[in-house]
Amino acid sequence: MGFKLVRGAYMSTERKLASSLGYQSPIHNNIQQTHSCYNDCASFLLEAITNGSHGVILATHNVQSATLAAKKAQDLGIGNGNQKLEFAQVYGMAEALSFGLRNAGFQVSKYLPFGHVEIVMPYLLRRAEENRGLLSASGLDRVLTGRSVQKAKSCLF
């Protein structure tokens, strides 16, 4: 059995749904609460998988969260290709983070959404909105993303 930990997802939809049902919003009041909750859950899951057969995918574009999780994993003896832990990011986002984690010996996957434009574009716009900090990506991220695009183009032709 495996677990995938994500943050964000459908913030505005969740707020509206909770309000329409008379429930308290499941969305944290501020971004720091979101970071703290994600980091606490990641730590809990990492501890849980050390002694069992379970695995976890930590889906995050947040460098601080990934760094904390990677350190915790190494402290617990998880790393260097261990199949119990995988980090994941959306293809084209946080490329430097993905390469850094991979170079540190962790399994990394890139999520590539595909489908009809009317379905995929709203999804990607939500991801971009939730990750506004990535829109001003570092120079390294821009270079690495450009290289990925060129590599993909060369495979097509």
TrEMBL record:
Reaction(s) this enzyme catalyzes, per UniProt: L-proline + a quinone = (S)-1-pyrroline-5-carboxylate + a quinol + H(+)
InterPro entries to which the protein is assigned, alphabetical: FAD-linked_oxidoreductase-like, Proline_DH_dom, Proline_oxidase
Domain Proline dehydrogenase residue range list: 1-134
Molecular function terms from GO: FAD binding; proline dehydrogenase activity
Highest taxon of the lineage: Eukaryota
EC number: 1.5.5.2
Family from the record: Belongs to the proline oxidase family.
Function as written in the Swiss-Prot or TrEMBL entry: Converts proline to delta-1-pyrroline-5-carboxylate.
Name by which UniProt lists this protein: Proline dehydrogenase
Organism: Hevea brasiliensis (Para rubber tree)
